[in-house]
Amino acid sequence: MAGEVSSAPTVTGNRALMLEEPLLFEIGSRDQTGVDFEPHSEGTSRMGGLERDSLDLPGLSEPEAVRHYTRLSRQNYAIDLGLFPLGSCTMKHNPRLNEKMARLPGFADIHPLQPQETVQGALELINKLAFWLIDLTGMHGVAMSPKAGAHGELCGLLCIRAALEARGDARQVVLVPESAHGTNPATAAFCGYRVENIPATKTGRVDLEALKARLGPDVAAVMITNPNTCGLFEPDMKAISDAVHAAGAFVYCDGANFNAIVGKVRPGDLGVDAMHINLHKTFSTPHGGGGPGSGPVVLSEALAPYGPLPFAAKYPDGSYKMVEEETAGEEHPDAFGRMVAFHGQMGMFTRALTYILSHGADGLAQVAEDSVLNANYILRSLEDVLDAPFAFSGPCMHEAIFSDKGFAEGFSTIDVAKALIDEGFHPMTMYFPLVVHGAMLVEPTETESKANLDQFIAALRSIAERAKAGDQALKAAPIYAPRRRLDETLAARKPVLSYNNPAPDGSSTGLGAHFGGG
Ligand SMILES: *Cc1c(COP(=O)(O)O)cnc(C)c1O
Questions:
Q1: Atom 14 (ligand 1): residue with closest C-alpha?
Q2: How far is the CA of 65 from the centre of ligand 1 (A)?
Q3: Does the C-beta of 389 come closer than 6 Å to ligand 1?
Q4: 204 and 342 belong to one structural domain
Q5: Range of 206's domain?
Q6: Are both 419 and 336 inside the same structural domain?
Q7: Residue 40, domain member (yes or no)
């Protein structure tokens, strides 16, 4: 209980084995270093006067440097430490087999400019993964190179624009539901489209009639997330696609939530023209703390000819080739261009293919089933104590949405999130999607045991009861973390990102003026 804990500070500032850690610049001294540089040779500089006299690097011994970063790493939360219920992010366990495969030298130690005959295995892997992504989605082609979900959205919309331009059709508008991830309208605007919102129904789904009423010759595409960001399946998806196609437009599906339907539903059967797959969500692979993203885009027959270069093609003699050029006579004369310098994220491809092959078709379907089961377990276990705005309309998909309705005056979602930190959990996604006031989007994923879910539910239940009762102690949370609440607005609006050497008299505050909460 908060009130019973003595707040007497320790001499060191450390708390149990949670160690305080100053900035590197504050612990290092400039006259101490682990490296001796050669005295630099005389000669004419080609730096154009930009060379520095002193780098002012903090000097530390090896154990000091190792301890600095190890201590900082202990202040991080990770999926390897516990449940990470960040809705829309699919923070699932990363099987170590994936890591083992990704580190095989034939995949890890190759260079994108190596002669193609020396990397046939890597090209085969990219081609195989492409095959399975097409198979799982019921689509026609796939662009493998986009490097994250948002990059995939850009790729998909560029394909749509190229297809429209090819038929001499300059449309200006992209329709996006109110609940969409911010990357959807951002992508459409970046591609030069005007973004208009599609309203939602009371059950949190796209309003089909409103959408139909808005379709017309100026609409290039509709971007829909399915399952949507309220964690709900869009049952009208086929009717939406049919209406969009009848109006001469394309259907972009944000596939970030594919985890809920992988192995169960093929977006191609629902009339989708383009969909990115976040390999780093659905197919495990570490993200949100180090690992890169990867966002291949599956394409319908209508859009596949416009997909970007390069791609790994298989030839009748069994060899593989990275098709790099849009030369006449090559397979791909209509490519809109190129997304990235090389071929995408090899390590992520290796992890994703390992994940797919080790699960098999039945295993992937079970991923979807268990992720949905876990989310519904959380929804039904907490709906008596937390407002669940769409629970009346039936089961959710792989994430459960709650709101702060019913909390005592002055209490909001942020208080729940901060209290979860004290309970040892990473907070859920907060205040997203925007269509739910004070949203709390909880995505447990299929890799949590019932015991873990029960512990999380008990923690969230107790916090929700305190928020409803107006327990003022909740306002102080987190009290056990290395820092108290930060001034998040100030930190976001005026981030202090550089370190100023303290003046000799110690008057400068250096970095951290806005972050030194506790
Ligand atoms: C994660 C996510 C994205 C963006 O994917 P990134 O890989 O982070 O660029 C887009 N839409 C939704 C619904 C998401 O959850």
A1: 256
A2: 35
A3: no
A4: yes
A5: 97-353
A6: no
A7: no
